[in-house]
Amino acid sequence: MALAEEALRKRLGKYKFRDLTIEELKNVNKTYPNFTFSMSTYTFKDGSQKDLLNFSGTIPVKYGNSYNIPIRLWILDSHPFAPPICFLKPTANMGISVGKHVDAHGRIYLPYLQNWNHPKSTVIGLIKEMIAKFEEEPPLYSLSSSDAARQSELLSYIAKITEGETDMKSKSKIDGGETEGCFNKITVVGAGELGIACALAVAAKGAADKVVLFDPSEGAAKGGTMDLEIFALPNVEISKDVSDSADSKVVVLTVNSLGNAQTYLDVIQSNVDLFRGIIPAISHYSQNAVLLVASHPALSRTLSLRVFSLLLPRQKKIVYFVWYKS
C-alpha cells in the first residue's frame, strides 16, 4: 500500500521531528508494503491518552514453516529519539504464548527497544530483531476451533458478570453441547474481606448457580465466614478443600501474602510462592476456567510475568487482572 505522504504530514503536525519520522516510515513502507498506517488514541499505563501514529501488518517468521505474525507498532511523538511501543495483534483463532519477549497482553519487549539510540536504531532494525527473536521463541499459537469457541464464550460470560447481568442460568455450552440447568460455578479463592465481598457480590447478582469460597489459609480471620454461615446462603459453600472448586467456570483469586517482607522484592517473592502453591491445583480441577486476579497495582504486572507464564496450561486459561487500592 502506497504511503500517502502529504496526508500523513498533516496528521503529524504535533510530532516534534515530523520530517525524520516520515522518512523512516517511507523506508518501512518500502520494505513492508502490507503495513497500514492510521492515527488512533493510545492509552498509557497511567490512564493518560494521546493520538499517535500507528501501523499494523504481518512479519514473516520461520519455525518449521513460514508464518505471518500480526503486529502493531505505535510511534511516539518524540520519534525517532524514542522507541515505538510494540504489540502482537492476534486474530480470534490465535493465543498469546507468554514468554521472555511477550507479556499476557501481547506487548513486545526486546533488547533493541531497551537500547534504542537514534540514528543507529531504526524501525526496520527493530522489526528484523523481532523476527529473529520470534523464530527462537514463537509468540503465538493456533487455537483449535473448539478452543476458539470456548474462549469467545468465556469472554462473553466475563462481560456479563462485569456488566451486572443476571440472566445467565438458562443454558451453558460444554464441549459444543447444550445442557439445561448445568452448573455455572464460580470459585473465590481467599476468605479475607475482599474474597467475602466478591462471594457476596456474585451471589447477590445471581451470576452463578453455585459459589465456592475457598480458603487456602490455616489462620484466616473467621468473622466474615461466620457471617456467611449464619445467613446460610443456599448457593454459597465455604470450603478448605480445593477439589470443591472442580469445574468452575470462573476462579477469582483474592489472596495475597506479605510474609516477612522487608522490601518490594520480598513482597513479590512472597506472592510468587503463594500463587505457585495455589494455581496448579486450581488448574487441575478447573482446566477451562477463566482466572480473574484481584491484585494491588504494584504486583499485577510482575505476578503476570513471573507466575502465570510458568504455571498456566497456555491453551486452557484466560487471565484477567483487576487492580484495587487497599
Short description:
This protein has nine helices and 14 strands. It is of the alpha/beta class.
Structure characterization notes:
The structure is a single chain. The protein is built from nine helices and 14 strands. By secondary structure, the chain is α/β, with parallel strands linked by helices. The N and C termini lie far apart (50 Å). Helix 8 packs across helix 9 (297-311). The longest helix is centred in the C-terminal third of the chain and has 22 residues, at 264-285.
What brief labels describe this structure?
326 residues, alpha/beta, six-stranded parallel β-sheet, 9 helices
Structural class by secondary-structure content: alpha/beta
Strand order of the largest sheet: 11-10-9-12-13-14
Given as residue ranges, the uncertain stretches (5+ residues, pLDDT < 50) are: 166-182
Helix and strand sequence: HHEEEEEHHEHEEEHEHEEHEHE
Arithmetic mean pLDDT: 77
- What share of residues are in beta strands? 25-35%
Radius of gyration: 23 Å
Termini, distance in Å?
Answer: 50 Å
The largest sheet is:
6 strands, parallel
The gross shape turns out to be elongated
How many distinct beta strands?
A: 14
